[in-house]
Amino acid sequence: MSPRELVEAFYTEVWNRADEERAREILAESFRFRGSLGAERVGPDGFIAYMREVHRALDDYRCIIDELVTDRDRAAARMRFTGKHRAEFLGVAATGRQITWAGAAFFRCEGGRIANLWVLGDIVELRRQIAE
Q1: Of 13, 26, 42, 79, which is the most exposed, with the fewest CB atoms less than 10 Å away?
Q2: For 49-89, how does the pLDDT look when each residue is reduced to its tens digit (9 = 90+)?
Q3: What is the phi/psi pair of residue 29, to 5°?
Q4: How far apart are CA 111 and CA 28, in angstroms?
C-alpha cells in the first residue's frame, strides 16, 4: 500500500471504526506511536490500548483528514478530532459535550506498513472545551 492508502485506512478503518484487526494488518510489528495525549506506545498492541482509551472516553470519536501530503515513504496530515465526552478524559469527568480539536500527524512507512507516527494535537483547546 502507498503512504496515502495507509494513512486513509489508518483513520477511516482503524481509528473511526476502532478496527483492531485492521490495525494489526497495517501497523508494523515495531510500530512506534507518539500521540498528543500521552507517552509513546510501541507495537500494534500498544497503539490499540491507546485507541481503546480514547474511544472509551469519547463517544463517536472521529478523525477527519483536512489535508494530506505524501511522498514515497512519508505522509503528513492536517487533522480534526471530534467526539462526545462520555467518560473521564485528561482527568476531567464526563461533560456530555461534543468536542473538536485540531492536530497534525507525521507518518513514516516501511514495507507497505506504517512504521512510525507522531501526532501533535491542540491540547490547550481540547482542555478548554472539557473544562468549561
Answers
A1: 42
A2: 999 999 999 999 999 999 999 999 999 999 999 999 999 99
A3: -55, -35
A4: 8
